[in-house]
Amino acid sequence: MRAPLPRLHAFTDERVARGADLAARATALALGAGREIALHARGRTLTGLEHFALATELAHHAPASLFVNDRLDIALATGAVGVQLGGASLEPGDARRLNERWWIGRSVHDLPEAVAARAAGADYLVVGPLFPTPTHTGRAPMATATLAAVVALGLPVIGIGGVALGCIARLKDVGVYGVAAIRALWDAGDPADAARRMLRELEA
What residue ranges define each of the domains in the chain, with the CATH number in brackets? Predict the structure, then answer.
């Protein structure tokens, strides 16, 4: 039986992945949120070797869980608990054949994509952007009504995109299961405290 899906998801990007303080910050995030945080090995322009090294490092920070974005070969090699699939990745059903115990998520940006992801066998959805964010400057934040419709599909929804301390309560009101962030967690002055406080908002 697999462990519950973490409610807090710390996504990396290339800058975080290549940072000299990656290990220290991952340790702090794991300290702050324990089993309720997933550390995502992600970086669209990382080389295969860089992505593998990133996932290998993040796997060393128990009780946090390792999730790998898109690179299912690396997820298999590093013993990841879950995988996060983008629009150009394999379908969730195909990923399931590689490891039936994985948590398999799909990144979606609107209701039709969410409906398709559920039909394809995703376990959970990463939905966004929910707030203005420099990582998706060309995409408007999702309307609350659309987010509510995605939540109503019945899969756990992880909100992403500009998520920070102080805005989680309004997402909980819509019914999100958890949240994901890059800067609000990895760039925090005290990552352990940031993770602890974000988790506290989720659990309030």
Answer: 8-203 (3.20.20.70)
